[in-house]
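Researcher: I'm preparing a figure for a lab meeting and need a structural model of a single chain. I don't have an experimental structure, so a prediction will have to do for now. The sequence is pasted below. Please return the structure as tokens so I can convert it later.
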Amino acid sequence: MADLKSGRIIEYHTQYKFPLTVNGHVIANHFVDFYVLDKSGKWRVDEVKGMQTGEWIIKRKLFESIFHEIPYNVIKR
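Model: Understood. Here is the structure written out token by token.
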């Protein structure tokens, strides 16, 4: 990843798993394309999408409700 070499990001993980837990029950797991730590020390999600499926839309809404402090960026192809 070019941003890692340039110093714009510190660390990243691919296919990172976020359990979507509601009232103590895991409803589903959401695997994001990139979980990125930028040089300011903040984590974000970068998701590359060609087509948005119904399942993905629901999981994204759950993710944003549960992990509201983590920015979720969608990169369209």
